[in-house]
Amino acid sequence: MAKTSSVEKNNRRRKLVDRYAAKRKALKDTIMDQSKPIEERFRAQLKLAALPRNSAKVRIRNRCEVTGRPRAFYRKLKMSRVALRELGNNGLIPGLVKSSW
Predict the structure, then answer these.
(1) Do 20 and 56 reside in the same domain of the chain?
(2) Cβ(67)–Cβ(82) below 8 Å
(3) Of 48, 62, 86, 99, which cross-links 27 as Cys (Cβ 3.0–4.6 Å)?
């Protein structure tokens, strides 16, 4: 089980990303638009740098929803391999059968 503080920190980052997504997209579009004057693009770049760092989508860490584990994460299932195996062994995931030979 992951530390609660790590999981909560990641949740706060997700909220910040959602809050600033539109603003970041608008500023990035301005920065990348070659037809705009360089001064305007530079001002947009400064505004983007002034936004909170945790509002960038890159800062979010994929974590297991069951245990909070940050590694060995399956995106499709939103859980780690350890949690997947445990739930599969208990028969809680339909269609999943543990192979043994």
Answers:
(1) yes
(2) yes
(3) 48
Q: Which residues contact 86 (CB under 8 A, 6 or more apart)?
A: none
| DSSP state letter for 79 | E
Pairwise CA distance, residues 73 & 24, whole Å: 27
- Cα dihedral 68, 72, 73, 75, rounded to 10, equals 180
7-40 per-position pLDDT tens digit: 999 999 999 999 999 999 999 999 999 999 999 9
Residues 72 and 50 in one domain: no
Tokens found for residue 6: 């790590």
b vs e for 42-79, b when ≥16 Cβ sit within 10 Å of the residue's Cβ?
eebeeebeeeeebbeeeeeeebbebebbeeebeeebeb
Q: Are residues 72 and 45 in the same domain?
A: no
pLDDT of residue 74: 95
How many structural domains comprise the chain? 2
Instruction: Please report where in the chains the tokens 């983007």 appear, as a residue.
Output: 48
